[in-house]
Structures are given as C-alpha cells and as structure tokens.
DNA sequence: GTTAACTTACTATCAAGTAAGTAAGTAACG
DNA sequence: CGTTACTTACTTACTTGATAGTAAGTTAAC
C-alpha cells in the first residue's frame, strides 16, 4: 500500500541542534562516569546536567552501555592525550609528545579521572568498555614500539627485544602515576614524574646497562 | 538491674568458627569486588558464595562499606605483594622483592584484579576506600624512597632529588602493567615488563644520563 | 539463660528500560 | 504556499527488578 511509496520517501534530516545536544550529553557523561564510575553513575545524573529526563538520553543513545561506548570514542575530540587519530609524531618526538601530554593532563583532572576509572573498571566481567580498552592499549603499544624502532634505526642501534616491554611500561607508568596523582595531587608531580620515568625507560632501551639488581 | 551484672558478665567469646566464617566472607568479597567492582558487586553474590543470605553478611560486617574496608585491610594476610606488615627487605633487596612480586602476581589474577579495580574506583567521589589507598600509596612510596636512600648511601652516591619521582614511578609502572595484563594477558608479560621497568628506573636514579629527549 | 549467628520477611529506594503521548520541525505535493 | 504526512525530540508515567539495610524470630553454643 503506502509501503512502496514510503520506501522511496525522503529521509528527514535530523535537526542541527541534535548534534550539539548529543555533544552536551557526552560531555556530561564523561563528567559523571568520571566522578562516579560507570556502574556508580546514573542516567538521571547525566540528564540533570543537561536539563533533560533520563528517558531523553535513552532516546539519543538507546542504552547506558551504548552511551559509554560513544563516550569512549568521542573522547578523541576532547582528549589531547590521544594519538590514534591525530597526526602522530614519529620517533623521539612521540616521547616528547607523551611527556607534554602528562604536563597538560595535570590540568585536566576530570578527563584523566574518567580514563583512570573507566579503564580499570573495564577489566571487570563483561564490562561494555573492555574491548575498547583492549584495542586502545594494543594500538598505543604499537605506536610506542614503532617510535622505538625508528629511534633505534636513526642511531644505528639494533632494535633490542626490550622494545615491547618498554612500550607497555611507558603507558603503564603514565596511567599509574595518574592514579596516585588523583588520590593525592600534592604528593605526586604528574608531569615531572612522567618525564622522569619516560626518560629512564627510553634511555634503558637505547643504552642498556647491566642489571643493577643482579 | 541486670545492667551492672551484665556489664561484668563474661563476654561470650565469639565462636571459633566465626573467625573462619569471617575469613570465608572476606575471601568471597575480594573475589566479587575484584570481578565486579565495589559499586557493581552485591552482598547477595558474596553471600551466595559462602552459602548465606546477604543479611548474614551484614550481621558480621554491619554495612557494605565496612566490609570493603575490612577486605582492604585483610589483604595483608593474602596478598604477597604487601610490604607494610611483613619484615621489609631494605635497599636493593626491596627492588628485587618487587620484581619477584610481579612474577608471583602473574599467577594471582584474582587478587591483582581486585586491587586494580578497587584502587582506581577509589578515586571516585566519596569512595569508602579512598583514604585507604591514599595512605597505602603514601606508605609504599616512603618504603621505596627509603630503599633508594639506602642504596645511594651504600654506593657513596649523593641521594638525588629524583628519588621521589622514581618511587612514585616504580609503583605506577607496576600498577599500570597490571591493567594492561588483565585486559590482554597474552600481550603483556607482567613479570618481565615489571622487571625491565624497575631496573630502568633504578638505574636512572643511580647513574643519571643526560636526557635522551633533549 | 543469655548471646551469637544466623534466617525470613519486609521496607525503602533507586535503577534502567519501555510505552505512549505531545509539540514542533521538515519534507513532499498539489 | 500551505496543507498533509511523517519524523524527531522529547516528557510523563509506568514496569520490572535489584539493592542495602532493618526488624523480628529461631536455633544452638557456651
């Protein structure tokens, strides 16, 4: 009946404000999930912050899980720390970029907290963010490893097999320092500590010393 | 009336089995909070695991928050990683101990996960475990810093001002590697990566090199 | 016989998700 | 150009289900 006509009917574009509204919701969700965790934060709280009901949010995102996933991928636009989509500095510039990021992050406690909380929470059973963080770390480790290879090639050093260990370690130390810094900002200098550790690890790859623990 | 007599009445000691039961509950709580988080885990699940109702658990611990706090302090008996109460190896032995711990932890995913999840969750607003983890990191950083000082003294090196940064970094890298390892055990060698990073950081304190990033 | 160690049963609360309705926008068509 | 046809962007109201905590009762140890 109307079927055939309906099929070829125009697709009435979503309103332009809708995109802005979605961004607002995502921003609010980062804040709430960051400050309360995913399990602890509620749609109601997010809705309150954007002046809506929680049903309105479900209208946009379908479910709380889906909202989280979109929050995580949305971050690229917000989080300076991310390398994946940006033009990636190669070689030694990447390590400098990571250090700079740590210094910048020291002024962005909200976003840092969101990532700390959500990444750790993602290791729990059936967490909707788990796959996201698995891929994220895999990608980031790959980027760092490639930077190491480039640097080794530049210096004519044979790329040692410590590169994988070092790549994971650099990301790890940045994350771990964030936890300590969030718990007690006065006790840990996020920027300087990250700088120190990254330098130590890079140095250890480029000019391995005999183990001091032996 | 009976008040005065009751006051001096024997305090009918808790049954010997009670202690064992409490331990069972704490063990189950570690597992549940570890696998679901504190906000995500429920008293019901914990109760199921020890063959009780959730009210029985509240009888022993009073509240969910209190249970968490007891879980966290109970850990000393279970978690090999902890240094606070054990006789602490000093100087270089401490770093060796940390490395050994990392290798051991690679076979204790359950407990590792509990600490990763709970420590990160503790940075959220009004989390009952926050103070615990603040103190814990403060103590651990102190232990590591003291080990650095001892080692520096042994070698006749002036203790550099990088010790604080290094102490936080060593704990950070261990924690951060745990997250990556839990997300993808095949991709990260928890023991070897921890060893590598700790050696790099210790080495960097003992014999500082000019910054490779400069 | 008192108290610890529970259970059962209940309460209060709060969560995500659904259903149905409404107002306003947008396109198609005559 | 304006009516019609339909969609988006919500709201209100509800359902369903779970959760921490409480109160009162029961059993058995000491």
TrEMBL record, chains A, B:
Which SUPFAM superfamilies does this entry report, sorted A to Z? Homeodomain-like, Tetracyclin repressor-like, C-terminal domain
Name the domain of life this protein comes from. Answer: Bacteria
Transcription in keyword set? yes
PROSITE patterns under this entry?
HTH_TETR_2 (PS50977)
Q: Which Gene3D superfamilies match?
A: Tetracycline Repressor, domain 2
Q: Which InterPro entries match?
A: BetI_C, Homeodomain-like_sf, HTH-type_TetR-like_transc_reg, HTH_TetR, Tet_transcr_reg_TetR-rel_C_sf
Annotated DNA-binding ranges come to 42-61
Q: Does the keyword Repressor apply?
A: yes
Q: Which residues form a coiled coil?
A: none
* Domain (HTH tetR-type) ranges: 19-79
Q: Which UniProt keywords apply?
A: DNA-binding, Repressor, Transcription, Transcription regulation
User: Which GO MF terms does the UniProt record name?
Assistant: DNA-binding transcription factor activity; transcription cis-regulatory region binding
Please state what the protein is called.
Answer: TetR/AcrR family transcriptional regulator
Q: Which organism is it from?
A: Agromyces binzhouensis
The record lists the lineage as: Bacteria, Bacillati, Actinomycetota, Actinomycetes, Micrococcales
């Amino acid at each position: 009946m109307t079927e055939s006509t309906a099929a070829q009917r125009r697709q009435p574009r979503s309103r332009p404000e809708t995109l802005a509204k979605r961004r607002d919701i995502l921003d609010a969700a980062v804040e709430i999930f960051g400050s309360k965790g995913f399990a602890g934060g509620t749609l109601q709280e997010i809705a309150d912050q954007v002046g809506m009901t929680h049903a309105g949010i479900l209208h946009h995102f379908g479910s709380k899980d889906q909202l989280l996933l979109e929050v995580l991928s949305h971050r690229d636009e917000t989080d300076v720390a991310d390398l994946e989509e940006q033009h990636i500095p190669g070689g030694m510039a990447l390590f400098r970029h990571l250090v700079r990021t740590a210094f910048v992050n020291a002024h962005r406690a909200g976003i840092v907290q969101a990532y700390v909380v959500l990444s750790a929470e993602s290791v729990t059973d059936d967490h909707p963010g788990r796959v996201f963080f698995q891929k994220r770390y895999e990608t980031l480790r790959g980027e760092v490893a490639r930077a190491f290879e480039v640097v080794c090639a530049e210096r004519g050093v044979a790329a040692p097999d410590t590169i994988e260990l070092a790549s994971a370690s650099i990301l790890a130390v940045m994350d771990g320092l964030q936890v300590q810094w969030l718990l007690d900002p006065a006790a840990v200098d996020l920027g300087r500590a990250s700088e120190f550790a990254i330098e130590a690890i890079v140095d250890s790859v480029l000019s391995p010393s005999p183990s001091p623990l032996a």
